[in-house]
Amino acid sequence: METEYFVKEGSIVREIWGSGDTILFIFAGAAAEFALNKAVDWLYFTGRLPADPLGRLFSTVGYARTIVFADQATALRAIDSIASIHSAVETKRGASIPDWAYRDVLFMLVGYSISAFELLHRKLSAAEKQEAFDVFLRIGTRMGIPGLPTTFTEYETMRESHLQENLHRSEFTKDLFKQYKKHLGAVRFTIMVESQKLVVPKVVAKLLRHRRGSVFPVVISAYKFSRNIKADRILKSLILPARYKKEILALDR
To answer: What is the C-alpha separation between 111 and 129, in angstroms, rounded?
Structure first.
């Protein structure tokens, strides 16, 4: 019997999430936007985010990637596990995570999947963008998140609205970036910030006070060349914290 995958083989979503390079930029974008989200206090409630911000973000990205490559049954179990974990946190705090906060996480995964892939590889067609959106729509629907858009065009409108309404610079923002720098070190932290400039929406860059312009376009060109001559693994091993090298280097499929 042929295996039924949650995301069909040959899908653009598998191509996006099968590239360690792309995932690193998705991670950078998510790290920026998580810090600005008005619901970031929920991530501070458990204490896991400030204690291990990189691990918490890699966990979110890791769950998404697992779902993308899993068979249907395994993927649904993973999605249900995510919903269960969040439900337990809500019970412990005695409050509910806002619906818009759930939507925000899905929206950023869609947005950074597209912007990271286009930065490193090529422009996506309208159909490919819709396909990427559809995968995360199915995840959100399984989790029971209400109010989700049904098309990529609707998503773009809602995404822009969420960016304007649900983000702000707070004490959490400053603390989280302080933790990023502590866990990454000054050089890797600078690389993360420069990477963020290339993939985040303008409103995110403005709120984070990232100065315009980045030296990274030239670096990206050099990196693409290194990838062609199979030297990219060496570069990745230099810019990643030792704790995560093995995990990230194994992300290429």
So the answer is: 9
CA angle (94 as vertex; 91, 95 as ends), nearest 5: 100
Cβ burial of 1 (10 Å; 0-12, 13-18, 19+) is exposed
Going from the C-alpha of 59 to that of each of 55, 63, 219, the distances in angstroms are 6, 6, 27
Main-chain phi, psi angles of 71, to 5 degrees = -70, 165
Which H or E run contains 120? helix 99-120
Say if CB 168 and CB 35 are below 8 A apart: no
How far is the CA of 19 from the CAs of 26, 113, 117, 120, 233, in angstroms? 11, 11, 9, 10, 12
Q: At a CB cut-off of 8 Å and minimum separation 6, what does 83 contact? A: 142, 143, 144
Give CA–CA dist 76/241, Å, rounded.
31
125-176 per-position pLDDT tens digit: 999 999 999 999 999 999 999 999 999 999 999 999 999 999 999 999 999 9
